[in-house]
Design a protein that fits this description.
UraD-like
């Protein structure tokens, strides 16, 4: 079905796969036809990996803080709710806010993790471990996590 869509229909259908960055879908459309969802994901991942440093940083910064109560994309709301980040106790909320801020203070962008691959506890552990990384390592990790988030979103978008 995606292979038969115009560029605008395609971008409308899957433009939200990468947080607030529909231009990735618009560019991926040019690589049609896609053999399957995995092939489409690979095409989109290559686009992200070839983006300039500034464009990658903009993509990273488009993501919300984990456990945030601020408005975020519907996909982020759903993903965070799968591990209970929408129902944090006051203590857990404070811990997430502290770690979010410490991470942003160190790296100047939000902590990104594919929450569907984790539990609340493993996310907290990853926060603490990744705070020990340097900027270069962490930027690469953030992009890898974004690509994994997109894989999940794409599977759900095409199957649902």
């Amino acid at each position: 079905m995606l292979n038969q869509m115009s560029q605008s229909e395609f971008t409308e259908a899957i433009g939200s796969i990468f947080e607030h960055t529909p231009e990735i879908a618009a560019e991926a459309w040019r690589s049609q036809p896609f053999a399957d969802v995995q092939n489409l994901h690979q095409v989109m991942a290559v686009i992200v990996l070839k983006m300039s440093d500034d464009a990658q940083l903009k993509l990273i910064c488009a993501h919300p803080d984990l456990g945030s109560k601020f408005k975020m994309a519907e996909a982020s709301v759903q993903e965070q709710s799968t591990v209970g980040l929408d129902q944090l106790s006051a203590t857990e909320y404070d811990r997430f806010q502290y770690l979010n801020q410490a991470y942003k203070d160190k790296f100047a962008f939000p902590f990104i993790i594919a929450v569907r691959n984790h539990t609340k506890d493993s996310i907290l552990k990853a926060f603490e471990q990744r705070l020990l990384n340097n900027l270069e390592v962490e930027k690469k990790q953030a992009i890898a996590e974004i690509i994994e988030i997109a894989r999940w979103r794409l599977i759900l978008a095409v199957s649902g």
